[in-house]
Write a structure and sequence with these properties.
This protein has 429 residues and is α+β, with helices and mostly antiparallel strands. The chain contains 19 helices and nine strands. It starts with a helix and ends with a helix.
């Protein structure tokens, strides 16, 4: 490989990175083209959760055209009293800051990578305690760097310091400095953490990569794989491989009772704008975690607290208007149907089209949103069956399954219809 980047300083820094990888077997960037800094010109940082042989975090700071990198087994802490071990690793190319996916088993670092946090930073490194400010790259050489992070999850001042162990080890310590962002840590299951870029969990990233691998196979391979299978067999296999419904992914245990039905209405509202599905699902989880699982609880929440909850899930651009829609929707549901969507269904006489019409009286929910609600609710409201919207039918066509809703419904049991609909939608994402 011979690129202009290799001729410069960053190419020299990346020699070890490239030596360890076979780019015909890994989706990781080879660093052959230049990557820019942050959107405002400031240097970037990224923290990636890496489910390899041992789960760990990779902490990376831009310097000298590459990402200076440390493996942090327990991840960064926001508590100044907690010191995190950080072991230097090889420099990574700038393009790596957006890498999220699977590294094949057997390859160096094999496992799933998630962008846990990302953003920009301000260098605060000095030559000694009161010396002049120096570059971060020079600070790394000297063994100490200070910086202020501006990410989605990490904020404020941090420092990395080389320990110079007597055993010759090159370990560093990553420490949060005392400032207004300092706080005690809360324990979190890494498998439940979500990407700052896509809102996905580690398991969803791995599943999506496998799905993309399958989609990339040639048509002849696809025909060979499905030869001899009936449409029912393929539908069953699709459900098995596609994972939970969107309601299940959001943590909703859907029943024909007021609270879970309202939670589905919230998820529908969040999905009814042009935003990625994983981020909408993550936003729903934040809403439920805040305790707003009923319309009365939502009606009692402040507008700003709802905006803040959406922001924690990176539900940007639509956060303020969606907070307004959720508040108004909760009040409408309480005032008109006493907080119970089953009363809406009864007012509609159980007629699917009338249910869809009444759902559109909630702000932000239009025809597409009403279809999203019905697609999931058909599991507990049999009156809606079969509910396959245009997105699901497009997925059926793509997978060479019937496009007629009644014929599609005949492929599975009634309580599996939401699973099939969700699987078909995912096939289009």
């Amino acid at each position: 490989m011979s690129t202009g980047d290799e001729m410069g300083e960053s190419g020299k820094h990346l020699a070890e990175y490239r030596r360890k990888r076979s780019f015909d077997r890994t989706a990781e960037p080879d660093g052959g083209s230049r990557g820019g800094a942050g959107g405002d010109g400031r240097p970037v940082f990224v923290v990636q959760l890496h489910d390899a042989r041992r789960m760990h975090y990779d902490f990376r700071l831009e310097a000298d055209g590459v990402l200076k990198s440390w493996a942090v087994p327990k991840g960064p802490s926001n508590d100044p009293q907690v010191k995190r071990l950080a072991t230097p690793t090889e420099d990574h190319p700038m393009q790596y800051r957006t890498f999220e996916g699977e590294i094949a088993k057997g390859e160096y670092g094999g496992g799933t990578v998630m962008v846990w946090d990302e953003g920009t930073y301000r260098n605060r490194t000095r030559a000694g305690r009161s010396g002049p400010e120096i570059s971060l790259a020079e600070g790394v050489e000297r063994g100490h760097v200070s910086f202020v992070l501006e990410g989605h999850k990490l904020h404020g001042a941090f420092a990395l310091t080389r320990m110079n162990g007597r055993d010759g080890s090159d370990d560093w310590l990553l420490v949060k400095k005392s400032d207004r962002y300092a706080k005690a840590d809360s324990e979190a299951d890494p498998q439940r953490l979500r990407s700052a870029r896509t809102g996905r969990t580690l398991s969803r990233i791995a599943a999506d990569d496998k799905r993309e691998d399958k989609a990339g196979k040639t048509m002849s391979e696809s025909k060979g794989r499905t030869a001899g299978r009936t449409a029912k067999d393929r539908a069953a296999k699709l459900i098995e491989e596609s994972g939970p419904t969107f309601a299940q992914e959001a943590g909703i245990r859907l029943k024909d009772t007021p609270s879970p039905l309202y939670q589905l209405l919230v998820l529908t509202t969040l999905l009814s704008v042009r935003i990625s599905t994983p981020i909408a699902v993550a936003a729903a989880r934040e809403i439920y975690a805040a305790g707003w699982r009923t319309p009365r609880a939502m009606a009692g929440a402040s507008w700003q607290s709802i905006v803040d909850a959406l922001g924690r899930a990176h539900y940007k651009r639509y956060d303020e208007s969606t907070a307004t829609a959720l508040g108004e929707g909760a009040n409408l549901l309480v005032d008109r149907w006493h907080g119970d969507l089953r009363r809406l269904r009864d007012e509609a006489g159980g007629e699917p089209q009338e249910i869809r019409r009444l759902l559109q009286e909630f702000r932000r929910i239009g025809p597409v949103g009403a279809e999203i609600f019905c697609r999931e609710a058909q599991g507990v409201w049999p009156q809606l069956r079969p509910a396959f919207d245009q997105r699901a039918l497009a997925g059926a066509a793509k997978l060479r399954l019937p496009r007629n809703p009644a014929k599609l419904a005949s492929l599975v049991e009634g309580d599996e219809l939401p699973d099939l609909a969700a699987a078909l939608v995912r096939a289009t994402l």
